[in-house]
Write a structure and sequence with these properties.
By secondary structure, the protein is an alpha+beta fold. It is built from 12 helices and 18 strands. The strands form 3 sheets. Strands 10, 11, 12, 13, 14, 15, 16, 17 and 18 form a 9-stranded antiparallel sheet that branches. It has a 5-stranded parallel sheet with strand order 3-2-1-4-5, sandwiched between helices. Strands 6-9-7-8 form a 4-stranded antiparallel sheet, with helices on both faces. It is globular and about 55 Å long.
């Protein structure tokens, strides 16, 4: 069985690592010559729109998937006309545009912050009395890890924020005074069977995820499962899907969804009976889905920008290091570590040790 992957970054790398025990081989299409997954399968080096490479991928792969949602939607559409593509191109198209995504949530009765489309400084000024202050201005496309976003605190912020976006179509959203940020990850296979992972509680800094902690038996679990089920059924979804949510006083409000394996689910590699990466492959190959039960108390810590000495990290007990084979660069995810413990107190101590090392490496 050969799985084609659009993109060859760390998510593709972890998909491949999960696939080898299942006897799956991989072909990656990625424009980067040093893409970090290229040692784990054949690397088709070139642009995502290269017709020759797309033809090769469609002919040789039994099924094609993607590791990030900024793959051109027309590429996924082309491949879907020649081979199986999961998740379907529709999911990609919805996730790529924040306005379409918010409208999709609205149509499914999934709550969101107040929002409005803006295409000019004038339309942004006209929207603010309805949206209120503070608010966040976001580009409709190509935004991730806090990119393409500006916080609006007063009318004085409008013109600089709009100019920073260089006039691209945008959406303005009410700022949500959330109690916490959570995400739910689910997998659905071709036959329609679905499994759900325990909620992850997420901690961001500078718009980038720093820590995700598994929350088994969370009181918001059922509400989150209801919302992600609506998404998967409406999209006839196949694969792993992640839904990011804000909790406000016992209610969940949708932020965005990712039609792929997700950073907040990295804890599942050591912390669940079946990782999100293995279940993604099982789903797109229409295999029985694995159990998603958490194994103890589990969390994931990202290493951003730089990496501590490997020896330092390996001295921390009950932690597991995952290097991405990526050169250090400011704001870049270069590795993560999972931690697993028997008690909440033990897990908190492990998170503290790992985040201290991560912060030092990020500052260097």
């Amino acid at each position: 069985m050969i799985v084609g992957v659009l993109g060859a970054g760390q998510l593709a790398r972890m998909i491949a690592l999960a696939g080898y025990p299942l006897g799956v081989d991989f072909i990656f299409l990625d424009p980067s010559v040093d893409a970090c997954a290229n040692r784990l399968g054949e690397h088709l080096h070139g642009d995502y729109n290269d017709p020759r490479l797309l033809a090769q991928l469609a002919e040789r792969a039994d099924v094609v998937t993607y590791e990030f949602e900024n793959v051109p939607a027309d590429v996924a559409e082309f491949l879907a006309s020649h081979t199986q593509v999961h998740p379907a191109p529709k999911a990609l198209a919805v996730a790529q545009d924040r306005l379409i995504e918010k409208t999709f949530f609205h149509d499914l009765a999934i709550p969101t912050p107040a929002y409005a489309a803006v295409n000019s400084l004038e339309s942004l000024e006209q929207a603010m009395p309805v949206i209120g202050w503070p608010a966040i201005l976001k580009s409709r496309t190509l935004g991730y890890d806090g990119k393409g976003q500006s916080l609006l605190k007063s009318a004085d912020d409008l013109k600089p924020a709009w100019e920073q976006l260089a006039g691209v179509p945008a959406v303005v959203e009410a700022f949500v005074p959330f109690n916490r940020e959570v995400s739910i990850i689910a997998a659905r296979n071709v036959s329609g069977a679905t499994v759900y992972y325990p909620l992850s509680e997420n901690y961001h800094r500078g718009g980038i995820l720093r820590v995700s902690e598994s929350r088994d038996n969370d009181p918001m679990q059922q509400q989150a499962e209801t919302y992600i089920t609506r998404l998967m059924e409406a999209l006839d979804y196949v694969g792993v899907l992640a839904l990011e949510l804000f909790e406000i006083d016992g209610k969940l409000i949708a932020n965005e969804f990712a039609p792929r394996v997700h950073n907040s689910g990295h804890w599942t590699i050591e912390g669940a009976e079946t990782s999100q990466f293995e279940n993604h492959l099982r789903a797109i190959l229409d295999l029985p889905l694995g159990a998603t039960t958490a194994v103890g108390k589990t969390a994931m810590v990202n290493f951003i920008g730089g990496l501590p000495e490997t020896e330092q990290l390996l001295t921390i007990p009950r932690s597991h290091l995952h290097l991405y084979d990526k050169a250090p660069r400011k704001g870049r995810k270069v590795a993560h570590a999972t931690a697993r413990a028997d008690t909440t107190g033990q897990l908190a101590e492990l998170i503290k040790q790992l985040t201290e090392l991560a912060d030092k490496a990020d500052d260097s």
